Each structure stands twice: as C-alpha cells, then as structure tokens.
Amino acid sequence: MTFHAMLRRTLYTVLIAALLAFFAIPMLWLASAPFDSDPGVGLRWPDWTLDNWRITFEHPYALGSLLNSIVLCAVATLVTTVLGTLASYALSRVRIPGRDALLYVLLLLSSVVTGTAAMVPIFVMMFQLGLINSQYATGLVIAGGMLPAAIFILKDFIDSVPRSYEESARVFGASPGQVLLHVVLPVARPGIATIMVWAFVQAWGNFLLPFLLLRDVSGQPAAVLLRTLKDEGGSANLTVIPVFSLLYAIPVVALYLFVSKRYGFRFHGGIKA
Amino acid sequence: MSAATNRTRDTSGLGVARAVAFVSPALLLIGLFLVFPALWTIYIGLTNYTLTGPASVAPAFVGLENFLGALDDALFGNALWLTLVFVLGSAVLGQNLLGFGLAWVLRSAKPVVRRVVEALVLLAWILPSVVVAYLWTAVLDRDGGTLNALLGNESTAWLVEYPMASLIVFNTWRGTAFSMMLYSSALAAVPPSQLETARTVGASGWQTVRDIVFPHIRGHVLTNTLLISLWTANDFTPFLLTAGGPNHESETLPVFIYQQAITNGELGYSAAISFLLLIVNLVVALLYLLLLRRRS
Amino acid sequence: MRVRRTLALTAAAVTTMALAGCLGQQQESDTGRNADAKDVTLTVTANAVAGGKNELTAKWVTDWVIPEFTTQQKDKGVNVTVKYDGIGVDDADYKAKIALDFNTDIGGDVVEIDGIWLGEFAQGGQVRPLDDVVGKDEVDRWDGWGEIPDAVQAVGEFEDKRYGIPVGTDGRVIFFNKKLFAQVGLPADWQPTSWDEITAAAVSLKQLPGVIPMQLNAGTAMTEATTMQGVLPLLASTGAEINQDGKWQGATENVKQVLDFYQQVYGGKLGDPLLAQEAKGRDKSFELFAQNKVGMLFESDYFWRSVVDPTVGVAKMADRDAAVGWAKIPAMNPGAGVGGQDFVSMSGGSVRVINPNTKYPQQAWELLEFMNSAAATKARLGDTAQVTQRQDVNEEVLQNDPMLSFIAEEVLPITRFRPGLADYPKVSSALQQATADVIAGKSADEAAAAYQDALVKEVGEDKVARG
C-alpha cells in the first residue's frame, strides 16, 4: 500500500468516525439519564438505578398516553398512507390540468395549518362538527395536514414505476385495481414504507392539535403528557422525563426497524424531479 | 415534474372516473381539514381578533393593517431574517451537503459501517422533537454539557452565546437523513460506466462530482432542497431549545407566530404573519421551480 | 373545475361562519336555570395534573373534593357527578386552551385561572361577575368572604366586581444563603434597608470563587417571573406602582432607577447575565442556589415551599432550615417605597371562576363555596404549608413554618398586587424586554426609552405616563 493510499484510508476512517460521533453523541443522554439516580440536563456516567423506571410506571397516565399515541398515530398514518397512495397514483397516471400547481398550493397551505395561528379555526370547526374529544377525528385532522407532502413525495415514486409493467399486466387482463395492488404497489413499496414512517413520526410528535382537541387527560397522547411532567413552578421533572423520553422513542424506532426490514427503507429510485 | 407525467396516454387504463374516485377521499380530507382552516386563518389575518379581551368578542375587519404593522415591526424583520439564515444554513447548506456527503462516502463503505451510520442518521430524524430537544440541551448546556466536557471548557453557554449557530448545527443533525436517503438513491442511478471513465482519466473526487454526478442528480437536488427548505422554514423545534432567546436572537418565524398567538393572544396578527410565511415559502418554491424549468 | 368549486364553497363558508360570529356563543342570563335539577354534572378545570404539574391540587380535587361533595349533595337528594379536567402544561398554553373553551359550552364549570388574566377574560366577556352568573344574594350570603382579607379578595376582582374566589396568595422576599453570608462576615439575620446595602452584600459575596452573588430574574426567557420577582418589587421600592392613576409607567424616573439597578447587578457582574438568558435559567438558578453557588435570590415563598424543600422540592436542600435565610425587600432608601414604606413586596395568586356558560350556575357556586370552605382548604394543603386565602386556616397551618408565618405576618401587610387589567400582560412583556435590553448592553436610559415606545404602541399614548 502506498503512502498516499494509506493516508486516504486513514482520512476516510477518521471522517467516518467523526460522522458517527456527531450523530451518536447527542443520543448518549437517552442511554444514561434514564438509569441515573440523579439525572440532570447534562450528560454523565450514571449512578445506576432503576428507580426512575418504577416511578415512571407508577405515573397515572404515562403508559396510557403511549397507547393513546399509538391509536392516534395509527389513524393518521393509515389515512395518510392509503389516501396518499391512491391519490398520487391517480395524479401520476391521469392528466389533470393544473395538477402540479394544485399540489404546490396545497403543500404551501399545509404550512399555515400546521402552524400555531390556525388553532382557532381548527378548534371551532371541530367543535361545530361535534368532533372534540375524538381520537379518530384528531387523527384525521393531523392526516389532512400531512397529505399534501405525502402525495407530493409519493407521486414521484409512482412516476418512476415503469409503465411497461402496467401495460403488460393489462394485456393479461388485469383490472386497474389489480394493477395498482399487484404491480405498482410492490414496486413503490419502499417509498410507501418511507412515507408511512415519516407520517407516523410527524403525528407522533404533534402537540398542539391533540392538546386542543382532546379534553380528557387520560386520552391525551404522549406528546402532550411529556409537557405536563413538571412541578408546581413549571420546572422539568427529570426523574420521569428521561425514562419517558426513551419509552416515547421506542415505538417510532420499532416501526422504522420493522418497516425497513420488511419493505426496505429508502428512496429506491424515488423522488425524481 | 417528471418527464413521464407529460405523457397523455392513460397506460394503466385508470379512466377519469376511477381517477377521480382515487383522488377524492384525499382531496375531501384536505379540503375539510386543511384548505378550509387555512383560508379561515388567512381571513383572521385581516381582522384584529385576539384570544382574550374586547377584540375576542367583536373582532373588527382591519384590512391590511396587520400586514402593514408587520412590515413596521422590527421583531418581524428580525424573525424573517433569522428564518432565512436558518433555512440557508441548516437546510440548503447543512442538510444538503452533509446528506450528499454521507451518501457519497457511504457508497464505498463496508456494509456494516454503512448500516450503522445510516441507522444513526435516521434515528436522529425519527426521534420525537421534544426528546431531541432534551438531547441537545444535554449537549450544549453550560454546566455538564457534553460539548463543553469534550472541549474541556466550562463556561460556554452555547444556546445563549451562539444561539443561531447552535440551532443550525442542531437542525443539520436532525434533518440530514432525508437528504441522505434521497441522494443515495439518486447516486445509484448514475451510470457506473461514467464514474469508471472519470476514474481512469484521473479526475479528482470533486471533478467527478461536479462534471459527472451533478448533471445526473440536478433534479433531485432541487426537489430535495425545496422540501427541506419548506420543512425547515416551518420548524417549531427551535422553540424547545432556546424559546426564541436570548432577546429574540433565535426567534424564527414559527416561534414568532407562536409567541404572538399564544403568549400575546394576538390571533389576527399571528394569522397575518402565517400568511407572510406562506408567501416566503411561495417565493422560495417559485425560485426552485424556475431553476428546474431552466434545466428542462 | 371540481377543485375550483370546492374552493368557492369553502370560501363562502368561511365568510359566513366568521360573520355569524360563531367564535362566541350566546350566553344564558337566567341565574336560576336548572337550579332544581336532580341529576347534575359539573367539571372542574385547573392547570394541574396527577403525576405532573401541580400534582397536589389535582389529587385534592379527585380524591377529596369530588367524593366529599358528591356525598354532601347526595344527602340533599341531588345526584351530582363531578369531573376533573386536569391539564398541567405551560401557563401560556393553558390560557389559550381555556380561552377557546370559554367560547364554547364544553369548558369546565369551575375554572382556575391566574389572577392577572382576569381583566382580559372579563373584558372579553369570557368570564362574568359572580353577581351576574350566580346572583348577588347567593354570593353575598357565603360566610367565607369574612375570612378572606380584602387585599386577597382583590385578586378575584376586576373593576370592583367579584369574578371569583382567590385560591391563596404569596409574597416576595430576598432569600439568601446563610452559609455563604457567614463566609464573608454577613449576619444570619441580615436585613438590608436600602438598595446600597444589597449591592454591598453582593460585592462582598463576589470574593467567593464560583459563587454568583445575586440572581435577579431578568430577560424575556423567564417571562412573568422577570416582572413579578424583579421589576415590580423594585418599582415598588422606588415608590411607584406600575399602574398609577389610570396610567402605565413609561420611561419615568422610577422605571429608569429600576433598570439602573439591573445595570448595576448585571453590568457589575454581581449576577450572571448568561444564566438570566438561558431558556431554563430560572430552574438552573434554583439548582445553583441549592448547591450553595448563589448568594441571593429574589423569589416568592414558592421557592421555600416547593424548590428547596428537603422532601418535596425540585432542588432539595437537606439543610434548608439552617442554611436559607430571608429578608424583606427594602425600599430604595428608607421611606422611599410605595406608600412611604420602608419595605415592599408583590403578591399574586390564582382565582377560581364560574364559567358563564355553565348549565348549573347554582350548583357550580355551591361547589365553589365547598372548595373554599375551611375544611376543603385544609385538605388541599395536606401536610404542606402555604398561605391560603382563608385567615382561619392560615392561623392553624402556618404556625409551624417560620418562613410562611413571616410572609403572612410581615410581608402581606406591606405587599401590592398587580393590576388585573387587560393590558397588563402586554406591559409585562415590555418590561421584560427592557431588562433583556439592559443585559444585552443597552444603558438604562436607552432601554427605558425603547420600553416607552413599545408601551405606547401597545396600549396607546393616553394610557402612558411619560418620563
């Protein structure tokens, strides 16, 4: 090995190590604080204990809130993925005048609705519709905000599915539904899986909408509960927060692992411009 | 967008009726839960509606007063500028470059290394933002923060002394995964023969990227930049780290909107600012579209 | 086409809904509605949740108030179901949520709000005087009023009308670390009589390595804490209240003196400006105090009860009783304080109001009375001590706690309350901004001038007393 090659190799290793450190170091807190007898905002080698876990499990709403989150996010994610796929398939395959402009407008409007300023319209509308305190309805509202971006990304995935596949399938007499189900979906699957995880993550972190639209504290998702883990003066309760943060992160990571193992998790030829 | 969409043939035999049936549920949901509240919000931006006080009972139509007020509001100018800095620093440059760099470097990495790095980068992307805020407070905290411990100094309060720089690094960490995934797949589509040719003529890495790779992935770069710019411009996570402080030094537009709507109860004004944020997004999107069109 | 039609329809719907004013509900005015109902459902709302913020309040409502009140009503033949809507988030988020609730009929019947929000809610018609909601005779008949000092009752009043019953109150003092004081030769019973004596003590403390002499709440990150623990007590020390004769203090001499004091503290490195600006700076100053790294803190008695308390505190100090001293906040110079006083303080507190949209105004009032009875108030405290709204309860529960007795006996008689005016939150923000400007390096005069401009813009020229 020449000196030059060795240097390159070393530099390469250092680069990879630096990148690894950059992404890994912030996460160490999640590995240490939940097990520390006196967790603080900073990172330190823990004084090992499982007491924080016991206290967290004894919290009246902690575990329930995670279940609520799962229900809420399952609704939002399913609706976003299914409706997004159907819509993007149709938009990809059938010419509708002004389609791209429409998509852009919706994408931009979604930024208004996901902001704080839209809270009154959404709240009053849901109140008038009698949908306050419904997890399903809250899931739908969240899905409504995510759909434009989902369609935007999915459409590019589906655009990249070769039409020749569909043509051959039709030659063999497949119905359009069968074409979508058996030809397009399998090819676009990594993209759909990616959107699924993306949608789940977005819904999982949403605080304001569930906070306003769900009344009952026992029906609130984890994103809301995490903000209540405080004392009288509003100081963070650092006994429960690290453990709960870890628990709160697990479903998202689990979903990602599941999806990536089963369907692959990448933009496999997706998002063409 | 894609060249393929310009085809007029209905190759999949979907038919207009079925296409409409496929699109309708999504559009219905979007219409009800997105377009309707969004338009309503824009309307509220034309009133002096507040959360409490007299104007909450009888809001008056004030026309463009909120918008004129915003142009006159130094804090709005500040927030707009910080948002641009945030988007440029963390999305257009940070996530884009790091995402591409990772995709490029990992191409030739061992599968194990590749998988570990990718998993970590993705983890940063999928963790909930409240959790991520705690993680980064632990990194940047003055006493006991990991960064200060690594640097062996005890006195830098990163989030107070360098709030925007901290947020830009943070958001680069947070969002690079999307760019990385997108560029990985884009790079896979670059014909290997061309890369091989570049190697045999002794082109440097940079020359290869500029002359061979970039022309192939240019469209991806634009779409990616558009999406991550939009997401970054609307990102509320900075609030969880700095609450806009110190003294408005990290108060980006979404944080400013939150402060106006929740803390000050100025719903009319905050709605108007939301609309202005939309306009900023629109300008950015048009800019990208223009660049895209020039390509094709 | 389709889309365009949808857009047109939604646009039309938006206009109609907004014009029809569906943001506000029609309020019923009959105070006696459903007074004889045999099946009643009431909801209590508070920013308190089991396992989280203000846990004790939440548990008190669910474990004591609800069962006791249900039994009491059952004896009268009324079948009452009380629900608790515990929220427990940041105050600003809570306020937004209940403001939305008040505009509909799904909000709680008895709602706990911060006393300073009363003006805004009252002016918005979201809460209304008890006399209108319940009826004057009923309200006056309650025997509990006699136990609540007038100053405390004022927390629940707006424009001389009673809107609710206060939950309790607090007082602000200077807490100091006796151990650090001893190291620089300051007495354990330290009681400054002027600002100069405070700064002199701080200068002595500065010799101690790693010790922040005094942390005076400042900046925008601490929100209301800056105003309530810093600016307003200091303003009272200079002899002024923030709202006098119907006008807010602009860049007056008093405001400049206050900002100048901030300048002395933070410009002279007697306090840590970075700590004051951190998003979690106040929590951190508590931690540092508990670690004997802060000499003095201007704080409410909450600090004693909930922060450094050896058992339930967030920054526990095992030796609290021996290590933590307290002193009244002195006037700038003796006799220069508000009302010619030598010492000053500020107080605040929450209020429980009745939602004007309640279906059962009479029953809600009964519940509110019940929650403010001596027995209920004592049950709320459990084994903790706190200055409650009721004097009879205070006499009993405070006797074992020297700090809280001090608040009740020495501080409350000299204290002032914030004006419950609708504009107050805006004024408070402007004051916070002024202190932030001083920390950022502006002079007291510049900061005061900028503050005055902001104030005029927010509340109008005619409501500002210019300097």
TrEMBL record, chain A:
Membership in a protein family: Belongs to the binding-protein-dependent transport system permease family.
Location of this chain's protein in the cell: Cell membrane
Transmembrane segments: 61-89, 101-124, 136-158, 179-201, 239-259
Cellular component, GO annotation: plasma membrane
UniProt keyword Protein biosynthesis, yes or no: no
Domain ABC transmembrane type-1: 66-259
Xref: Pfam families: BPD_transp_1
Keywords assigned by UniProt, alphabetized: Cell membrane, Membrane, Sugar transport, Transmembrane, Transmembrane helix, Transport
Domain of life per record: Bacteria
Any one GO BP annotation for this protein: transmembrane transport
Keyword presence, Protein biosynthesis: no
Membrane topology (UniProt): Multi-pass membrane protein
Listed name of the protein: Multiple sugar transport system permease protein
From TrEMBL, chain B:
Residue stretches making up the ABC transmembrane type-1 domain: 81-288
Organism in which the protein naturally occurs: Actinophytocola algeriensis
Membrane topology: Multi-pass membrane protein
First and last residue of the signal peptide: none
Gene3D superfamilies: MalF N-terminal region-like, MetI-like
Subcellular localization(s) per the UniProt record: Cell membrane
Recorded family membership: Belongs to the binding-protein-dependent transport system permease family.
Chief location category: membrane
Cellular component GO terms held in the UniProt record: plasma membrane
TM annotation in the entry: 20-46, 79-104, 116-136, 267-291
GO biological-process terms attached to the record: transmembrane transport
Keywords: Cell membrane, Membrane, Sugar transport, Transmembrane, Transmembrane helix, Transport
Keyword Repressor listed: no
Record-linked Pfam families: BPD_transp_1
Name of the molecule in the record: Multiple sugar transport system permease protein
SUPFAM superfamilies named in the record: MetI-like
InterPro entries: MalF_N, MetI-like, MetI-like_sf
Keyword Transmembrane annotated: yes
TrEMBL record, chain C:
Record-annotated membrane-spanning stretches: none
Record's keyword terms, sorted: Signal, Sugar transport, Transport
Signal peptide: 1-20
InterPro entries in the record: Bact_solute-bd_prot1 (IPR050490), SBP (IPR006059)
Database matches in Pfam families: SBP_bac_1
PROSITE patterns on file: PROKAR_LIPOPROTEIN
PANTHER family with a match to the protein in the record: ARABINOSE-BINDING PROTEIN-RELATED, DIACETYLCHITOBIOSE BINDING PROTEIN DASA
Name under which the protein is recorded: Multiple sugar transport system substrate-binding protein
Species, as recorded: Actinophytocola algeriensis
